[in-house]
């Protein structure tokens, strides 16, 4: 021990804007029981009085610029400590315990082979929480300390042990070793140089010990973002991650390097996803930047590996025992999953407890005699709760009403689902589609969510689920929304039976309007989404700005999804937002603050950005009419004023008097003075929807294949929803106000009884007549062998001619498996090929026209006249050279085969670089919005 204590020890302190900690650090150095021989201080461009404090205390300060990294600062200090045997490295935010140096020197005397020694690091200012007892690194670049999170020092780690590395905050190192290894690597100017130095030292045969009896308190100012330096700025995680990747790549063996390169690249993307899921966007970008920085400059790593190879002995020491075990990253993954599960469980428990406290009902507690008492209490409450039983019964009956949607479902405006989700993906990716003679009309935006869901459950099950679950999910969403609205008006909220009636009434809108039975998938989806969208929009009124911004992204995402199925949802939301925000600017100055008007504006910007791959091509391809239509086959149903007020789509739907009864209840909702203002808001929304519908009702869209009115299904839904919400609000106020008046209670009971007729009769009608035009059959009228041939490719088309000479003939081309969901709108909006149109006209009018010779070039293999075939046209085609009669399954159907083989490249689809660019931007935007929708998981370091 005497030789170590008698050795010359120079303390080297590096500082940068550390004046808040330096007085304590100076006192810690002066109070050492074994004093240092000298103190050399290096200040890297501090803007505070750090240099002055050090000069006054030790009188030997080297000053340099703020761009000087820690390795350079240590090198400058060594130039002033050439006579030192040991160098004791300290940071300006690390203060040693009075016995720290004594314990380190004692350990060096007991183990003369130790060249690097480090103290136990404890957190400053808590003083008891452990930070490090030596460090190592995992195969993924994670800094491993072997400590539990938040572990306190209770003497449980007091053994002196060999480790890979120790922190530079308190590191005692032989000067000769420091010089032999070339000091610290300048590629790591702030973070991570301790692990790299320890790895190089171990490979060179030097031993590193952790000495728990020596204690240093460390504030970790740079790591925690308390202090910002020119070398890190706001990107602390970038510096830390880059140092970790560099350490692994520079020090790994040549045999392990290829696997390390691949693993770190894949691991970086996994970590990015993890950071994005918890809304740590900055750290996710830092991860990517660190990877690109190193992988984009391979010469940096090659130079580092050559330098390390030159400094190692002929037989390098195996450092693998000092590295983190291979299974540690997987343990961290399991810890993350368990932490997430625990957080979700605790959150659910907290929500349940708050609800219990708000309701004043005690939570059933299990006793030792009956451990299932709590569960029995829950079951007992369920079976004795009429509302709960009614909800279950309603869902069961709704599933009965949706019976035709189980399995394959087609009919009305709903085309068949494709055979695989890959067809939806192909439809969405392609810029040109092999429909008809090929078209640039873009795929509808809703094809993307259908493709995503279809990839999980299949296309047929996707359509089935959307229809089957529409009413139950609408019921759930309406219940949540009406409950929140009721609590905003009255902390007690609406009675459960009132919520039940309102939610059931709204949930049946898709069925009662006829949208469900007509196969108008977009309107059905919008009915399901609307209460969730409205619930998200309520967040704009939250007093917390961060919650308002999260509400903006959630609302924008839901609005985008709704606009994908019904573009009119966006246009109406835009009109409504302008009216509401304009009134807000006029009424309150607070609306002028960015955190007030910004969230609604962000929500309105989301759809045009996220739906750009649909909207932009629709405008450039001459199919802008798609932005005013509903989903499904054209034409759209004509909606009159009476249809609007009764909640119908054309002639479909439940009896009209049910809609009139709901309208009457909504009018009566204006009577109670207590709730008149919020009910008037509902009426304003309904009237705005009616005015927009009246304007759009004057428009018709003429295409080559069809003439159609605008798709007003969403506006019908909005009006019905406004009526339901207004009625529930008024009923809630009336119930509270009539508690002390018998005649009022009777009046309210009478109105509620009348209003209850709407959901009762509507549910009964849905159960009996709900399926409407939907069924599970798909009959094209085309012989099966022709369909099999058409499936060979888009150029094996079938020309289908319908009608007769007197009333007129129409034609269409059936390709592959026919029009499926998503393709029918494209077919209705695309322009007919004029060359083919002229050729078909000549072919059916004159057998000698020679038009049949052009059919292979148009990708036509068969010609079919479905029943009842016009005899005159059939006679012309029979006499046409180049057509061979083909068999048909129905006697009334006539068919021919084109003699010449089709040209395989006659009709082709494909993508383009502009389409690809739009899809890439859309994908990135969707990921960004999803991340911003997530709850905050703590603030990023600044």
UniProtKB/TrEMBL annotation:
The chain crosses the membrane at residues 382-402, 450-476, 496-516, 523-541, 561-585, 597-616, 654-673, 680-701, 713-735, 747-768, 916-934. InterPro entries: Glycosyltransf_2, Nucleotide-diphossugar_trans. The keyword rRNA-binding does not apply. GO terms for molecular function: transferase activity. It holds the Pfam family Glyco_tranf_2_3. Signal peptide: none annotated. It comes from the Bacteria. Keywords: Membrane, Transferase, Transmembrane, Transmembrane helix. This is Glycosyltransferase family 2 protein. It comes from Nocardioides euryhalodurans.
């Amino acid at each position: 021990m005497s030789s170590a204590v008698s050795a010359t020890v120079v303390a080297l302190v590096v500082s940068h804007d550390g004046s808040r900690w330096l007085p304590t650090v100076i006192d810690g150095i002066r109070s050492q029981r074994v004093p240092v021989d000298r103190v050399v201080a290096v200040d890297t461009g501090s803007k505070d009085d750090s240099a002055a404090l050090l000069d006054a205390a030790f009188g030997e300060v080297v000053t340099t610029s703020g761009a000087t990294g820690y390795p350079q600062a240590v090198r400058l200090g060594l130039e002033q400590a050439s006579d030192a045997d040991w160098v004791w490295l300290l940071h300006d935010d690390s203060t040693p315990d009075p016995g720290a140096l004594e314990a380190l020197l004692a350990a060096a005397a007991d183990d003369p082979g130790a060249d690097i020694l480090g103290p136990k690091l404890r957190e400053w200012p808590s003083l008891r929480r452990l930070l490090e007892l030596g460090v190592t690194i995992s195969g993924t670049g994670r800094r491993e300390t072997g400590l539990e999170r938040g572990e306190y020092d209770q003497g449980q780690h007091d053994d002196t042990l060999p480790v890979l590395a120790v922190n530079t905050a308190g590191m005692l190192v032989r000067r000769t070793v420091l010089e032999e290894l070339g000091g610290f690597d300048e590629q790591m100017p702030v973070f991570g140089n301790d692990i790299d130095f320890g790895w190089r030292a171990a490979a060179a045969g030097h031993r590193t010990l952790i000495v728990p009896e020596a204690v240093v308190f460390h504030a970790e100012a740079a790591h925690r973002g308390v202090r910002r330096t020119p070398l890190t700025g706001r990107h602390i995680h970038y510096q830390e991650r880059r140092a970790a990747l560099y350490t692994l790549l520079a020090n790994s063996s040549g045999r392990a390097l290829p696997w390390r390169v691949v693993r770190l690249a894949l691991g970086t993307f996994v970590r990015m996803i993890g950071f994005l899921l918890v809304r740590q966007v900055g750290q996710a970008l830092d991860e990517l930047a660190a990877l690109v920085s190193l992988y984009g400059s391979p010469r940096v790593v090659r130079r580092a590996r050559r330098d390390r190879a030159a400094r190692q002995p002929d037989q390098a020491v195996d450092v693998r025992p000092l590295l983190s075990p291979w299974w540690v990253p997987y343990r961290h993954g399991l810890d993350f999953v368990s932490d997430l599960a625990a957080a979700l469980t605790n959150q659910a428990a907290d929500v349940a407890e708050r609800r219990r406290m708000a309701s004043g009902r005690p939570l059933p507690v299990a006793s030792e005699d009956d451990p299932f008492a709590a569960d029995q209490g829950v079951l007992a409450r369920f079976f004795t709760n009429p509302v709960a039983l009614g909800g279950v019964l309603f869902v069961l009956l709704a599933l009965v009403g949706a019976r035709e949607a189980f399995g394959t479902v087609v009919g009305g405006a709903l085309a068949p689902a494709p055979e695989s989700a890959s067809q939806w993906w192909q439809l969405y990716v392609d810029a040109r589609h092999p429909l008809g003679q090929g078209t640039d009309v873009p795929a509808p935006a809703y094809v993307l969510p259908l493709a995503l869901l279809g990839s999980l459950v299949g296309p047929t099950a996707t359509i089935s689920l959307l229809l089957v679950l529409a009413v139950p999910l609408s019921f759930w969403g309406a219940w949540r929304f009406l409950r929140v609205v009721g609590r905003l008006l009255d902390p007690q909220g609406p009675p459960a039976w009132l919520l039940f009636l309102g939610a059931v009434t709204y949930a049946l809108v898709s069925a009662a309007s006829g949208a469900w039975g007509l196969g108008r998938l977009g309107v059905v989806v919008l009915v399901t989404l609307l209460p969730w969208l409205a619930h998200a929009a309520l967040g704009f009124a939250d007093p917390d700005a961060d919650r308002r911004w999260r509400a903006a992204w959630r609302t924008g995402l839901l609005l985008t999804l709704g606009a994908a199925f019904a573009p009119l949802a966006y246009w109406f939301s835009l009109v409504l937002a302008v009216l509401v925000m304009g009134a807000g600017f006029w009424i309150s100055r607070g609306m002028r603050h960015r955190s007030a008007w910004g969230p609604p504006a962000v929500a309105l910007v989301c759809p045009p950005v996220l739906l750009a791959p649909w909207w932009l091509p629709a405008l450039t391809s001459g199919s802008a009419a798609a932005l005013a239509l509903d989903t499904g086959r054209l034409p759209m149903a004509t909606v009159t004023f009476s249809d609007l007020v009764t909640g119908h789509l054309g002639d479909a739907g439940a009896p009209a008097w049910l809609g009139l009864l709901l309208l009457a209840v909504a009018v009566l909702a204006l009577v109670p003075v207590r709730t008149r203002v919020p009910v008037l808001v509902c009426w304003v929304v309904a009237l705005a929807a009616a005015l927009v519908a009246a304007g759009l009702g004057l428009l018709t869209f003429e295409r080559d294949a069809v003439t159609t009115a605008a798709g007003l299904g969403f506006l019908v839904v909005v009006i019905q929803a406004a009526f339901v919400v207004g009625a529930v609000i008024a009923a809630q106020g009336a119930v509270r106000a009539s508690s002390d008046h018998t005649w009022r209670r009777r009046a309210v009971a009478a109105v509620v009884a009348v209003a209850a007729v709407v959901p009762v009769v509507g549910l009964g009608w849905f159960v009996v007549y709900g399926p409407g035009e939907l069924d599970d059959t798909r009959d094209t009228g085309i012989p099966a062998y022709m369909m099999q041939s058409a499936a060979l490719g888009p150029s094996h088309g079938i020309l289908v001619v319908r009608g007769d000479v007197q009333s007129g003939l129409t034609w269409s081309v059936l390709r592959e498996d026919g029009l499926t969901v998503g393709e029918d709108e494209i077919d209705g909006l695309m322009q007919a090929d004029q060359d083919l149109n002229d050729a078909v006209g000549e072919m059916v009018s004159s057998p000698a026209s020679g038009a049949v010779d052009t059919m292979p070039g148009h990708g036509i293999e068969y010609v079919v006249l479905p029943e009842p075939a016009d005899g005159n046209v059939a006679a012309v085609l029979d006499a046409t050279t180049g057509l061979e009669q083909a068999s048909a399954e129905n006697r009334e159907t006539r068919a021919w085969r084109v003699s010449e083989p089709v040209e395989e490249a006659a009709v082709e689809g494909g993508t383009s670089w502009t389409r690809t660019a739009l899809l890439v931007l859309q994908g990135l935007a969707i990921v960004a919005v999803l991340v911003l929708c997530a709850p905050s998981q703590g603030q990023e370091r600044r």
